[in-house]
Amino acid sequence: MKKVFLFSIIILCGIVKISAQDAAADAVIGYYFCVDPFTGEESQNYIYKAADGTYQGKVVWVKNPKLEHHVGLIFLKNLKYNEEDNEWQNGTLIYPGKKGSYKTYMSLSGNTLKVRGYWGFALLGKTVYWTKESKQR
């Protein structure tokens, strides 16, 4: 009976740890207001968990009506949460209007999401900061 009880406690602890990891990883899910660092255009992006367990981002709103064709564009893909670094890493970023793709990682601090896109080395890139919002615009 003691063995069954100990086994149950061990399983329960494992489930609680996995749930805490999932909660930390899922904290990034939501709507973010951003300003394009190159053009100054305003938009809102949505970060979500894909069916494969990675995190993706898509454009859900643009202020400039001329850019409405970007709404629905999935521009962030394959981000995986690294608990040790508290970052979503090894993703790919596509910048509308530019050729190619960039490596990317993100970190969340309060309501501010730091998104870093780069070529080859993290030193060769651009960092932007997005503000988390409570709902879609």
Describe this structure in words.
Residues 2-20 have low confidence and may be disordered. Strand 7 and strand 8 form a beta hairpin. It contains 1 helix and 8 strands; from the N terminus they run αββββββββ. Strands 1-2-3-4-5-6-7-8 form an 8-stranded antiparallel barrel. The protein has one helix spanning 2-26, and strands spanning 30-35, 42-49, 55-62, 74-82, 87-93, 102-109, 112-118, 125-133. The protein starts with a helix and ends with a strand. By secondary structure, it is of the alpha+beta class. The protein has a single domain (2-133), classed as Lipocalin (Beta Barrel), CATH 2.40.128.520.
Mind sketching the topology for me?
Elements: H1 2-26, E1 30-35, E2 42-49, E3 55-62, E4 74-82, E5 87-93, E6 102-109, E7 112-118, E8 125-133
Antiparallel strand pairs: 1-2, 1-8, 2-3, 3-4, 4-5, 5-6, 6-7, 7-8
Summarize the model shown.
This protein has 1 helix and 8 strands, in the order H-E-E-E-E-E-E-E-E. The protein has 137 residues and is of the alpha+beta class.
Architecture in CATH? Beta Barrel
The succession of helices and strands, N to C, reads HEEEEEEEE
Identify low-pLDDT runs. 2-20
Task: Evaluate the radius of gyration.
Answer: 18 Å
Question: Which terms would index this structure?
Answer:
single chain, 137 residues, alpha+beta, Lipocalin, 1 helix, 8 strands, 45% strand, globular, disordered N terminus
